[in-house]
Amino acid sequence: MSTRDERVQLIRALEKARGGTKVITYLTSTRGNLETQMAMDVVPYVYEHLRTITTPRDKTTIDLFIHSNGGDGVVPWRLVPLIREKCSRFNVLVPHRAFSAATLTALGADSIVMHPLGSLGPTDPTVTNEFNPQNPQNPSQLLGVSVEDVSSYIGLVTEDVGIRHEEELVQAFAILAEKVHPLALGNVKRATSQSRMMGEKLLKQRNDQAMDAHDVSELIEGLTSQLYFHGHPINRNEARDDLRLSFVEDAEPAVEDAMWALYCAYESEMRLNEQFQPAQEAYAANPVDAPQPPQMVMTPQGIQQIPTSAATATVNLDPVMSAFIESTERTDVHRVEFEVTLKREWTGELGANVLARSSLWVAETTPVSTAAEPEAPQAA
Q1: Residue 357 belongs to a domain
Q2: What is the pLDDT of residues 260-281, one digit of tens each?
Q3: Backbone angle region of 6, left / alpha / beta, with phi > 0 → left and psi within -120 to 50 → alpha
Q4: How many domains does the chain fold into?
């Protein structure tokens, strides 16, 4: 686990390696079973970090260090213009993953500095609303509908199967509409249009607007429709060579090491490499012994079974960190506390009910060490 003091020192080292920029970090959990989306509630907290900047706008460069699988596609349009009001140059640093909405955020930067393990991702949206179909494995959840899944179904029918007749096409679409509510399909179309619009608007935020309208259109088309798989990782070479993102840069050796050291500190604090398994964590903290099996007793009515009650226990797990916004001046962390009720039957079967007792942003503004920042890690 990392401390705030340790992370601040690593942020200072990264700022130094970057030549004196202002680094603000924004990470959302990519932990298995605890993925956290980029959401609008982050905007006021980013603003609080921007308020701490005292240098003149024309002398300020801001680096947004981002790690996320994405989320609300409107968030980038709120973040990028807000950040640009405080700086003359805005860059995005990608240490590992910047998918979907995080990729859109990067499109609004003057440069995208990528670690060798850094990846961007397609910006085709996956939408969920009340009209989406139920998850057959968990009826309480709704399945997200991917734009590319819908278009690929139509492509399968027309291109691979070879259906061209109008009546057959209508039948094929009717089958789709039976499984997915037409209003959910309409929302897919609206989300696609919004994603394209956001990409184009964000690209126009850049100081260097050398990309002409045709290049912008090709780039947005590539990110939203031509990669076929929403989770496809786009490395820095592919971003430059295939998508023609000319403003993608390789992190210099000292910056590369400083980026990775900072990412690893968050990875440890947020436990990003560990699957979130609340039932197993609760049981490890409070093993529940199975009760005695039912007793067989003789009564005037004959032999009867006396059932035994299941053994139960309630465990409060340690808080988990689902998002971070951090700079040298302050830390804002989104913290979730889970309560797990375990129930064990005499057969040994273990059940668990998981409840999020609290979910809120917590600000940490306590002073950190004033010792000189560490030297940026040297390249091997």
Answers
A1: no
A2: 999 999 999 999 999 999 999 9
A3: alpha
A4: 2
The pTM (predicted TM-score) of the whole model is: 0.81
Q: Which domain holds residue 26?
A: 4-124+197-272+321-332
Residue-wise pLDDT for 328-343, tens only, equals 999 999 999 999 999 9
pLDDT in tens, 120-145: 998 765 656 565 666 666 666 655 55
Listed residue (373, 375, 338, 337) closest to 353, CA to CA: 338
Q: Is the pLDDT at 244 greater than 90, yes or no?
A: no
Based on the domain organization, do 113 and 176 belong to the same domain? Answer: no
Q: Are 95 and 10 in contact (CB under 8 A)?
A: no
Do residue 120 and residue 202 come from a single domain?
yes
Note the Cα 146 to chain centre separation in Å. 16
At residue 323, what are phi and psi to the nearest 5 degrees?
Answer: -160, 150
99 and 217 fall within a common domain: yes
**301 part of a folded domain:** no
Tell me: do 71 and 13 sit in the same domain: yes
**Paired tokens of 376:** 């940026």
In three-state secondary structure terms, 317 is coil
The conformation of residue 88, written as its DSSP 8-state character, comes to S
226 and 119 in one domain? Answer: yes
- Rounded CA separation 278/262 (Å): 27
Choice between 310 and 376, residue whose per-residue pLDDT is larger: 310
